[in-house]
What does this fold into?
Amino acid sequence: MIKKMQQIELPPIGMRIIKSAIGVLIGFLIYLLRGENGAPFYTALSVLWCMRAYDNESYGMALQRVIGTFIGGFYGLIMILLEFQFFKSEPDYIRFIVISLFIIPVIYTTILLNKKNASYFACVVFLSIVVLHLGEANPFLFVGDRIFDTLLGIGIALFLVRLHFPRHKRKDILIVCSVNDLLLFNNQGLAGYSKIELNRMIQNGLQFTICTVRTPADLIDRMSDIQFKLPIISMDGAVLYDIEENRYLKVRTINQVISKHIIEFLQTFEIQIFQNIIKEDVWLIYYGDFTNKAEEKIYEGHRRSPHRNYLYRAEPLAHETVYFLIIQKEAIINQIVEKLNQQPFSQACRILTYTSDDYPGYKYLKIYRHDATKQNLIEELSETLPVNEVITLGTVPNDYDLTIHSESAEETVKKIKNIFEPYLWTPKK
It folds into this structure.
């Protein structure tokens, strides 16, 4: 039996790759226009080193490269002049010993100037001068050419980094993306293009956040590379969480009286209850004896997380609760929900159920406060921001402003880019 080959999705060729090739070509063209003077290799090397994913990284690399270039060029010139004066006719091993010893002041100078990150570049420039220098060449012209070749590559890279098609940045729009559907497929983090583009837009003023049924602990590791500036909407609208500050800014809790009724009701089914409480920005999960393998696996998979704190003890009746979590066989969950809807306190609750992908035959039941919804938190968040419009993205028709039918985070990020940075000639909708 021939297995169906799994389709391999190749990452796109991004603009950084294209700009790198263009920058190298520009360096070669300038070399030809200069009458083939200089060494285009060092120009190309500088272009590639300074062509970074984010503008601020490119500027940082360029600054390090400039400092390293002048330090390496300075010591390279001294070395060449000393060689002409004292040991021009000495055997090569003497020259190599002196060159090696010169590495010490080269690196030490970067330390004295508090520019340790420039030490590698300084050594590269120094070695490129003293190792490749031809004995009859004018040392001042030779060192000047190496410095010019390097600075030229830096200039080309910074020019291309800033070169973009004219776009209009819509900083007055809050974009909210359903992370479960559009950014995290198969529980994987974002790929290179998606991560780089999303971070670049956030740096340039994109008002962006995510909404998810997941807890903050589930997202922190998977989306740690995303530089969120806005808090995220988590636990299906129960909390507004600031990842950078590690704080719960808003928490919609079930009050003590209703929590007590819910616990007493669930205890009649003799099932395990995960009671989730947030106290002073600490997430506490009370639990009891396990009644099935799914509960035990959830506990074992999460208990080592630094963002969760499991407590084996009876549920605290007199405490406000963010949500209750139960996982049981589907028939048991259906029975619980049917009877739960008949309870007088059910009007104060939002009841959410969904089938487990990880544990076949099992179903989740989550009980939130009735107004703990994504829509409510999105509205409250937008009122604190200088935005005139909110656009939500998801895969469920009628639940979001824009429905995206795709299993690619790349397509999602491209859609966000088209909203945030439309071309100047794009007609307004």
